[in-house]
Amino acid sequence: MATGYTGGDPSKETPAGAQAKADAAQAAAVAASAQRAANLGDLASAAAARTNLGLGAAATRAVGTTAGTVAAGDDPRFTVTLPPPTDVQAFTASGTWTMPAGARAVTVVLISGGGGGGSGRRGAAGTARVGGGGGGSSGRLIATIPASVLTPTVVVTVGAGGTGGTAVTANDTSGNAGAGGGASAFGTFARIGATGGGAGGAAGSGGAGGFSSPFGGGTGGAALAAGTAPAAVFVNAGAGAGGAGGGITTGDVASNGGVSATGMTTATAGTAGVVGGATPTAGDTSPAGTPNGGGGGGGGAASITAAAQAGANGANYGGGGGGGGASLNGNASGKGGDGAGGIVYVVTHF
Known about the structure:
Number of helices: 2
Helix content: under 10%
Shape: rod-shaped
Strand content: 5-15%
């Protein structure tokens, strides 16, 4: 029997025997290894292999869009609806604000209503007859409030514009004062106060301009007993105040009205009324729904031959009305211009 050893001595292995032993060992090693052609199908334990590789449970789950599946790149579960970076609500009339979900803070901008202009005096020849004072304008208050201190709903109050003083139709009668503009508020968390209406023109004394609200409003023009009516006082914030109405001197010389003031973000003031000519105009209007003050109304011119000019209305938002011009007995004096309403602008931050 062939043993692969020389003379049967194990210590003297033949080359053929050594080769046979090596071939047998290699065959055993191959049999114990994973084969490429089997594509890992010959592993003793696939679960143990996954554990050793740290693949976790996702390796055995199918791709899908339901629970228990592995998500693909177009899986709708990846779609997240984010809140807008801000939520903006503009109130031009009083109402109720409701806090959006996820709110972190709220910035509010408040402008109150502008004051109405006063009407001019109607009086006899040879006396000083004074135009109405211009209405005061709103300032502009900005406040940022943490959502944590707010209530879920907040009552919003938007100040109405003041009505201008009515024209005088009775002889030897002083003008009527304009009504003040209303305050605007965001609940109890922020508030900007009311504006003043212009005083009515009197005999020999000027119609005082309406006072402004705080935070930068303008003062209405104060009418004079003689000469051209002065312009409104401009303050670099908020809305523009109304110009004063023109008066009539003791020498029966009628004067033009006064120009208004511009608003903080408006460029053009209201023009003054001209005796026997152009009627007064309002200043620039702020774009609808924006938290900016408008210009005031120009003052109306006086007249000794016909009804005096009315003051122009104030422009949105918070502009003061212009004062009305004075007149001679037998002719109506000029009505005061109406003040513009305010706005409350609420920006929610998420």
